Amino acid sequence: MAGWSSEELDTIGGADELRIAPLDGDGTPREPVTIWVVREGDGLYVRSAKGRSGRWYRAARARGVGNVQAGGLDRAVTFVEEADPAVNEAVDAAYRSKYQRYGGTYVDPMVAGEPRETTLALLPR
């Protein structure tokens, strides 16, 4: 499977927000939800601010595929759970760096507890 192009990594990873739409059981995209996205190396990662109870997250885990939109790009993706502690540490740092202007009120919950446990890698499909 081919990875993200440099342009896609720059565009999606550099976007302040991402619109994410996991597919429903019948293959149609759910209503897109706006979330944060971070780039770490050659990977793109997202987390559910509501933890495992987030609707988009539950659908993404159940179906494993969906679509994302950011910076004028619209791409089909596969969602892969990220369990590597080293990657999660790097994703924490990426969230802190990219979204620091929002302060700890919004960033701290994204790098701790249940939201941290919902880290998903976005892979192009």
Write a structural description.
By secondary structure, the chain is an alpha+beta fold. The chain has one domain: Roll (Pnp Oxidase, Chain A). It has helices at 6-14, 55-63, 85-98, 104-110, 113-116; strands spanning 18-22, 33-35, 38-40, 43-46, 65-70, 73-81, 120-124. The protein has a 7-stranded antiparallel beta sheet, with helices on both faces. Strand 3 and strand 4 form a beta hairpin. The termini are close together.
Task: Estimate what percentage of residues fall within beta strands.
Answer: 25-35%
User: How many helices in DSSP terms?
Assistant: 5
What's the domain count? Answer: 1
Report the CATH C-level class: Mainly Beta
Instruction: List the uncertain runs.
Output: none
Sheet with the most strands: spatial strand order: 2-1-5-6-7-4-3
State the total count of DSSP E strands.
7
Radius of gyration using CA atoms only? 13 Å
Q: What does the largest sheet look like?
A: 7 strands, antiparallel
Protein name: DUF2255 family protein
Pfam families: DUF2255 (PF10012)
InterPro entries: UCP028498
